[in-house]
Fold these 3 entries.
Entry 1:
Amino acid sequence: MKVMGTGYKLKSMIIVGVLSVILAGCSGSSQTSAAQTEKTTVLTGKEINLTTSVSNQEIAPGKTLPVWTFNNSVPGPQIRVKQGETVKVNLKNQLPEPVTIHWHGVPVPNAMDGIPGVTQNAVQPGQSFTYEFKADVPGTYWYHSHQDSVNQLDRGLYGSFIVEPKEGTGVDRDYTLVLDEWVSSGEMSGKSMSSDNMSGMDHGTMNMGEDMSMYDLYTINGKSGSLVEQLPVTQGDKVRIRLINAGYLSHQIHLHGHEFKVIATDGQPINNPGILKDNVVSIAPGERYDIEFTANNPGRWLIEDHGDKAAVAGMKATIAYEGAPAGSDKANESEKLTVVDISRYGQAGKANFTLDQKYTLQYTMNLNTSMKNGEMVYTINGKTFPETEPIKVKKGDTIKVRLVNNSKTEDHPMHLHGHFFQMLSKNGKPLEGSPIIKDTLNLRPGEEYVVAFEANNEGNWMFHCHDLHHASAGMVTELKYTDYKTGFVADTNAGNKPE
């Protein structure tokens, strides 16, 4: 059995064009460097080295943009480890600004969570930091900078992190597709700005809340359109595709030509998932969905984003059977298809929590949008971070959280650090299918969810919207263990920007 990671067949990212690493002025025309990104690799083993640096990448045919990278690639290397292994990652920062790494969804010790000013000081230019933790829970995760993250993720500072179960993945092909959006013009985007320029032009303060149309290039693994690498399969293969949304918009992913199952969400398995065909899987910022299918329909089939924006046309990859002729499938990205309702999917099974059990603490998070001093802010219970009220717990507590999206037009994908939570109800109705365990949950306007979790990982943890424009404009709170004593001391000169 041959199992392949995302790096196995990814196109080499060697770019012919020459573009400045850091553009002069707002849109810039100076060309002083020819640094180009390289192929995304797969890293394994007990010690991993990651170096951040500035480079350039051809995002779409003929469109090269300046990027910030891990190991000179966007996405950064896929880190692939076995369940139970201790992972040691040495980060070296060669960027002009401080940086950290957050292990999104991975239940790491608090000191390894990568939150500047909360768990560590941001790693300064030229400095290093070592992350070390045990990978106990198998699944699909990702890593990204959590320093000024609305801008640093926008520039490309992310990669996938896969924890394989001890018994193996059980598939013949294992692909990872990291979804993202970019600004082709370079204007109003962290990708096009030098560190000097960015200091005066921050996504979080630009009142962009109602308009995300500036993101006009959608990518899979850092490439758009014809640059997206094909996914080779052989008839009879069992294929897993891990979908990770590293961007700020939800994407509706449609697999053509095959029945499939959604086998995991945010890395956590779904009990007895049902067979789907011509449904779309809606993936919000920060979320992950693993789908699985048998390659039993020879041809060349698309897996693509659906929607009404022109940019969706660039977010598609071809599943290519060996020897299949070109052009045997057609795109239909504008067609409206039924979205998989994860609250009614799979089969009921053993669950950790129920709606009516007794909880140590119950908490309501009213999420909203408002104007303050002429700027858009995003609030939790009417307040913006750091004025939001933290959720205070002790180890062993059980917590039920009611999440309500009162924003009229905007989604809020809420991400809890250091913990998994169980979804209990959606819009007042208990879940009907499999127990659903997640770390990131999207609330559309008017939606209400109830979730529950156990306080089983001591520390000070972020709970925030993963549309990072919203986080940087206030939609952040903290989960604080009152009996936790941290040895961390924040350096006021580190330039820590945790949102």
Entry 2:
Amino acid sequence: MERDIRIRKPGWARRLRSGLLAENAALTLCIAGVMGLAGALATVVFRELLAWIQILLGGGDIPHGMVSLARGMDPWQRFLMPAAGGAIAGLILQLASRWLPRRGAADYMEAISVGRGVIGFRQTVARSLSSIFSIGSGASIGREGPMVQLAAMCASLTGRYLVLPPRHLRLLVACGATAGITAAYNAPIAGALFISEIVYGAISSATLVPLAVASVVANIVTRQVLHYDAVFHMPHFEFVSGWEVINYLGLGLIAGLAAPQFLRFLDASRAAFQRLLFPLWIRMAAGGLIVGALSVINPAVWGNGYSVVNSMLHTQWAWQAVAAILFLKMLATAASVGSGAVGGVFTPTLFVGAALGALYGTGLQSLFPAGSLSAVSSYAVVGMGALLAATTHAPLMSVLMIFEMTLSYEVMLPLMLACMTGYVIAQRIRPESVYAKSLAVNRNFRVPVRGERR
């Protein structure tokens, strides 16, 4: 009898621990804060690994990112480097898919919205390692995707250790993902709303409160302790006249029309690469070769485009230069995403939006008298938010994301109008957002776990 008690005691202890976490709101918020800390540190580790590879490739400290690294290379090096990195990244993914059985969801959005909150450790590490080689060799994708996935995986491991039921495990994973987004963009409000508005599809206090706690802790870690600066250094927003809001309405219209075409372009690239009857590593090497060829023309196509957007916001670009880099960057992004490189499209979307806004602002300034319109950089800032809202179908998150980047109240009025306009038009043309596949399109078809409350 005593032996039976000793055997069953750990099971009852786990159930008791799980019940306390499920019912105690204060304890849930404390764990959400811990997930914010763990998620922020996971993103820091990923950033430092990328910086180490960048220093290794460049032979020293490269302060301005991948574009500066590309410009310091010979043309033949720029041509071959992304292909070599893509081949290594593809081999890692190919070996992982062959030798590592899939456990849990492959994407944090899937784990939260339609899964059980389980994210595989080995698969996530393999995909993160692959993304480091892709991004570190110049692939035109964002690093926020792998960073958020790592943060969510840390939360999933913690929840599985605590033996949480699926409903609470998904919430914990959402807290980790929120921490990753916040750490990536130094945007705590938008980070919490990203998960609420896009992944959950609704904003409620039951989910928003723990997400906000995780976001605050993550932001404190990245900004105060580790001294990370803002992603984009926004200039002061200039709003000359109330009548100018009509111009921003037109910018929202353009963003709403352009966003579905941008997403279809990415889908077409994925379909084209999948039709190639070659192993994954060869397809990813081919995608890198395209990026390398484009970088011979203009090295600015490398990387996520942070430095190029910052330059576009603070210096006067000729419209021909903006149009050229926009065209080349879209081709490079389509090649990287289509070939299968692991990374995010959030930052490339901001790049395309900034370029569209800059072109639109330059065109308006050629039509109206000098001094009667805001600076071109103001239209670039609003263009970033408008295209982001049109592709993600999350206008509130997009408004707050740009607001936290600019810290300017003057941007809110034109930004809200442009984001809402772009969202409405894009949704009518293409009902699926950029994250539709990860969210399994329809949350209503999720199979409930036995014993779970819907």
Entry 3:
Amino acid sequence: MSVALIVLAAGKGTRMNSDLPKVLHQIAGAPMLHHALRAGQLLEPDRTVVVAGHGAEAVTAATQDYDDEAQVALQTEQLGTAHAVAQAAPLLGDHAGDAVVLYGDTPFILPETLSRMAEARAEHDVVILGFEAADPGRYGRLVMSGDRLDRIVEFKDANDAERAITFCNSGVVMAKTETLFSLIEAVGNDNASGEYYLTDIVEVARARGLSATAIACDEAETLGVNSRADLASAEAVFQARMRQIAMEDGVTLAAPETVYFAYDTVIGRDTVVEPNVVFGPGVTVESGARIRAFSHLEGCHVSRGGIIGPYARLRPGTELAEDVRIGNFVEIKNATLDEGAKVNHLSYIGDASVGEHANIGAGTVTCNYDGVMKHRTEIGKRAFIGSDTMLVAPVRVGDGAMTASGSVITRDVEDDALALARADQVVKPGLAKKMFEILRSKKKKRDEGAA
């Protein structure tokens, strides 16, 4: 059965107190909208529609950044959730399969939960996702008769008996696409808010003789984000989940509460992650690596046996082969380091390729930017780059070549050659003593004048 994914993302998010549309605020390095879209991918939707309103241009850009085949429908007036879903109808009118409605500000629905909803859809016309709330508060209540869902009652419209129900509505809905839009057409706005509630489709369905049910998920999956405090709570929930998954997958976290993951971080088993490590988006670490304390990784790949840090920074475009060593206060950007290469301390390697078993001395810099364009540096196999070498790109240091410490290399160095590029040392006997005497005399006069 084909599936259409509808993600509601039109809200302004007034309580966020932000110029940014609510669904574009980030959790784990990605907009909440991307989390919702990612959750729906398990269903392998053949059509995806995001309903945008406030900040529609930015929401559209974020949608297409995640899925360039996704379509965007505009909700120019926010008249309720049923009204929002209805805006997707012109784009899905010919869709013959099921539709599932998700929310761009509810980022933690698990793919397994959506899979269970799909299983329930085989037996019911409408499936709602619910949860047992520790504090039902102002959530809509699911009124059940066995496994049959009779109706959903919004808190504002509920009586005392209905408010005592703890099985609450998440807002997530699954139904045949044609059925969903047909039910929405019959929804009115005769309620306390004067809005068109998506929840009302259940009563309409029951009146038409259609079956409805609700399945339960963990309350944490339904966490909605409406404020900065909610955003911080959502980040904490995501990080706790990712840490647990990592450890279950065989990753050692020395101090789990200090390690931060991105939404797409991948780490192989038997990798050790020391305290205070941050993974930005786009990081893959293979098995058996070690990420030492206070390192920051983003947009990079670390192969088996790699050792990173402490206090290292790997920026986007970094590709490290097996057994590469990146030490303290080293920054790597848009560079490839082949097997066994070492950059152990206090260096910047950007826009470069480093050959197998090359050794980069402390204080080395690839001078890759001329103020307008970036240029590449090539360092060959088994090359030895002396400490405090400046490699002015574009430049190549050949296989087995060496640069002397303190050199500024501006021309290519052939294989097995030694390059020295520094001024001759000049020694003036006794001059240091004379200079100190002159300086101390000047300081004394200055201090006496100030007194």
